[in-house]
Design brief:
alpha/beta; Aminopeptidase; 4 domains; metal-binding; metalloprotease; metallocarboxypeptidase activity
Length: 859
């Protein structure tokens, strides 16, 4: 034992490991380990066996060692030996070390896709060009050193650099310690005369309430729709001709090209015939007259832009006509009015669906949703509507505890992956869904699940059947990009009852995930919804998240050598046979959901108490309107004092969903809007004290096209606030312009807050900005006589800590980092002089204390 431990210590040196390999010691160590494993029946010499494994572990830290290990059939030897150890708890040190060696030495492989770039591309205006796809070969085994290897622990705990997350271990070099930079106010990033166009976005400052009483609600609503919009270049909004650019992929592809079951076509119903008459507002500066003339026309979006005129279909539902009859008709009706052939007509199904809905879901209407969805511009030119978005959902009837993680589940999954390599006999390897090559999909294979994701906010690029009940899934990258794989939302059908299906999403990028600490994905069942239980529920068991053997080459990754992927694996037992279910990373919230929600709020508000203006901030790069809301209280009367109080209310500026995959930010914004227009006394007081300017969705294009982080330009919009482009980042450019305008008239917001979601932490918390706290954290001397600072930036977080059960003050941070200087929080604080400028982070998972505290196992 002492000799082996000494050898293991020597082999920590890479030069010694190289000598050991060159002298043929690796094969000898494998034979020694096999001998001790076979003869140590009573497990009396675990330390010696583990010492030999540590020698192998150190040797395989070098590329030559891994190559020699594979040539010596080390994978098969260790995999076979570890099977005898799994049932014995005392052998955990052996199992853990073997698993680490197997993961490290698993041959590296490219993702089984033609290119890591997104399946969707979008031609950018002006001189900006979308980079051409970097073609890569089909995945093949490589033995090169492409990735950093995981730590000794079972969980990876590296910090997620994509989130605005300041950990205590973070290096101080990222903190901004230049006092002049912290205190300086940069010059205006545009001509000052350009700010005048934003006056039209503040009608509340010049509202003539003398005339308000004589106006009908319809006239007021129409006036709101025809407010002047910011002047923008003519090429800024893609025209119908521009949208047919040859590089504008997927524009004309039909759903049938995805290889859908021909039998399902019978359920595709044109929704134009049954959607409620609803105005689809499309505010464009050069079309205001057309809008005014057709304000009540349900088909106005088709008249304004023929390229957008299309028929949407509800996703094909269940194939079981008998089940529909049981749902919709009594036994007597079914016997007296049988349908020929034993199937229901399409129109009957849709009509009964709408009758059954009965508007029992608050703030949701299928009619409103379809009217809005018909007007959406998307790169794939969506022709289908996902059932959960159309039908809506109710909150779960019960609170869901965090999933208790079973001990050893991650190493079981890793060993299953290794089994594929050394025992490939039962691996099917059939592609059943492929966004890049629909003709390669074979969804009609017997016993195979059917996948689909070409609907609003959907994201699934490829599905490969590994075994009968196991599938590898690949997410699509953000449009015009090759990364940011986290958000997924797709449909699955043709499942068997009581079968446990395993899904492996193999191209995740974050270092760690709340899925390792009790979080579950969400699932929606169509059968459950039609039986009166329309709910997104937490689902899945045996969930874990770990580094896998796939990698991105330097060429395809644009120079990012060493980029590895991670696997999110989970198992699900579906509640019904042959159901239609939807799986998502988090509760989906689409652009059409948001727009229809605004329509419903506007109709249901009390116009005598709530001042509401719904305008368009600008058109997005993809041609979708970005809404801007103004909410405050109506003046008590037309008296001068009351009108002055109305005009002089301070502003609160709220934004959300700059990152499309952070759908929880939209749910928080939804609650904010519903509360602000409600009759709650506190909401009434807030309206009387403040004017709320709200941009509920800053990145509509990203949300529509299923992105996780970026816009159609391929840029993270929350890193563009320093110098946004009016062409490439219009929503940021005009949101910043509106803030500039408010500052120029002496009405800079009292509070600015940007809603986000956080995938690494629990609870809800704020990031703010403080010069002193930043300098103190960096260890700099602070002369309090020279550097003075209003501590009012801490007031709102402290209030929230007292009144909001999910909020945690201890998780808040007020540091200004160099890497965050182009975010909304820092730019608004520095350039607009807003002391209370925040990013609000909401967890995807749960809370670690307070009223909503989750299981103690996952703190």
């Amino acid at each position: 034992r002492a000799a082996i431990e000494a050898l293991a210590a020597l082999l920590k040196s890479k030069s010694n490991s190289r000598r050991a390999v060159n002298r043929g010691y690796l094969g000898g160590l494998l034979r020694l380990y096999q001998d001790w494993h076979h003869n140590d029946i009573s497990n009396n010499y675990i330390h010696i066996r583990r010492g030999l494994l540590l020698c192998l572990k150190h040797i395989t830290n070098i590329q030559l060692g891994r190559e020699t290990f594979l040539d010596a059939r080390g994978m098969e030897i260790l995999f076979t030996s570890v099977q005898d150890c799994l049932s014995c708890k005392n052998l955990d040190p052996i199992i853990t070390t073997v698993t680490q060696i197997l993961r490290k030495c698993y041959p590296k492989e490219l993702l089984p896709v033609p290119t890591v770039r997104s399946s969707y591309s979008f031609p950018l205006p002006g001189n900006a060009k979308a980079e051409p796809p970097c073609e890569g070969p089909e995945g093949k085994w490589l033995k090169g050193d492409f990735c950093f290897y995981e730590s000794d622990g079972e969980e990876e705990a590296e910090k997620d650099l994509d989130n605005e997350d300041v950990e205590s271990k973070e290096e101080d070099y990222d903190l901004e310690t230049d006092v002049n930079k912290l205190r300086s106010r940069p010059d205006l990033d545009r001509p000052e005369e350009e700010l005048g166009q934003y006056e039209a976005m503040c009608p509340e400052l010049s509202q003539n309430f003398q005339e308000l009483e004589s106006e009908s609600e319809e006239e007021k609503s129409l006036e709101d729709r025809t407010e002047n919009l910011p002047s923008i270049p003519s090429h800024f909004i893609p025209s119908a001709t521009f949208m047919k650019h040859p590089n504008y992929r997927w524009r004309k592809e039909s759903v049938t090209e995805m290889g859908s079951d021909p039998g399902e076509k019978d359920f595709k119903v044109a929704l134009q015939s049954w959607t409620k008459k609803e105005k689809c507002r499309w505010d464009q500066m050069d079309e205001k007259r057309d809008i005014a003339a057709s304000a009540q026309d349900a088909n106005s979006c088709e008249e304004e832009d023929p390229a957008r005129s299309r028929v949407l279909t509800l996703r094909p539902l269940l194939k079981d006509a008998a089940w529909y009859k049981e749902m919709f008709y009594s036994e007597s009706e079914a016997s007296t009015n049988p349908n020929p052939g034993g199937r229901l007509e399409n129109s009957d199904i849709v009509t009964n669906l709408l009758e059954k809905h009965q508007d029992h879901i608050p703030f949701h209407s299928p009619h409103f949703y379809i009217a809005r969805a018909k007007c959406v511009k998307s790169i794939p030119d969506y022709k289908d509507v996902a059932f959960p978005d159309f039908w809506g959902h109710q909150p779960p009837p019960y609170s869901t505890p965090m999933l208790e993680r079973r001990s050893g589940v991650q190493r079981e999954k890793v060993l299953d992956d290794v089994r594929r390599l050394i025992q490939p006999g039962d691996v099917i390897g059939r592609t059943v869904f492929d966004l890049d090559e629909p003709s390669h999909s074979s969804p009609s294979a017997p016993g195979c699940l059917t996948f689909f994701s070409k609907f609003e906010s959907g994201n699934l690029r490829k599905a490969i059947q590994v075994r009968e009940f196991e599938y590898d899934l690949i997410m699509n990258a953000d449009v015009n990009g090759n990364q940011h794989h986290q958000w997924f939302y797709f449909e699955v059908r043709d499942m068997k009852l009581a079968a446990s299906y395993r899904f492996n999403i193999i191209n995740c990028e974050k270092f760690n995930s709340q899925f390792n600490y009790g979080m579950q994905l969400v699932m929606y069942s169509v059968k459950e919804a039609l039986q009166g239980r329309p709910c997104w529920l937490r689902a899945g068991h045996d969930i874990c998240y770990y580094k896998n053997h796939y990698y991105c080459s330097a060429a395809a990754g644009e120079g990012m050598r060493g980029k590895c992927y991670y696997t999110l694996t989970f198992s699900i037992k579906f509640p019904h046979k042959d159901d239609v279910c939807y799986l998502a990373y988090h509760y989906p919230y689409t652009y059409s959901t948001m727009m229809s929600h605004l329509d419903i709020l506007e109709q249901n508000r009390n116009p005598k108490k709530v001042y509401w203006r719904h305008q368009t901030l600008c058109q997005t790069l993809g041609g979708n309107p970005c809404p801007l809301l103004t909410i405050t209280a109506m003046p008590e009367s037309k008296k001068r004092d009351h009108l002055e109080q109305f005009y002089n209310r301070p502003y609160v500026f709220l934004m959300a969903r700059v990152h499309p995959g952070e759908s929880n930010a939209s749910w928080v914004m939804k609650g904010t809007l519903e509360f602000l227009v409600s009759s709650d006394p506190i909401a009434d007081l807030l309206r009387k004290c403040f004017i709320f300017k709200i941009v509920p969705m800053l990145n509509p294009d990203g949300v529509i096209n299923g992105n996780h982080r970026c816009s159609l330009s391929g840029d993270d919009l929350n890193r563009q606030w320093l110098t946004p482009s009016s062409q490439l980042h219009p929503t940021i450019y005009h949101a910043k312009g509106l803030l500039y305008y408010l500052r120029s008239i002496g009405r800079a917001p009292l509070v600015f807050c940007d809603y986000h979601g956080h995938s690494q932490k629990k609870n809800v918390f704020l990031y703010g900005c403080s010069i002193k706290e930043t300098l103190w954290q960096a260890g700099c001397m602070v002369d309090t006589a020279v550097i003075t600072e209003d501590v009012g930036y801490r007031t709102l977080p402290k209030i929230l800590d007292k009144v909001a059960p999910a909020f945690v003050m201890n998780s808040c941070s007020f540091l200004v980092e160099k890497s965050r200087e182009s975010t909304a929080r820092v730019v608004v604080w520095k350039e607009m002089g807003v002391l209370r400028s925040y990013t609000m982070e909401s967890t995807y998972s749960g809370c670690s204390h307070g009223l909503y505290k989750v299981s103690k196992s996952f703190k």
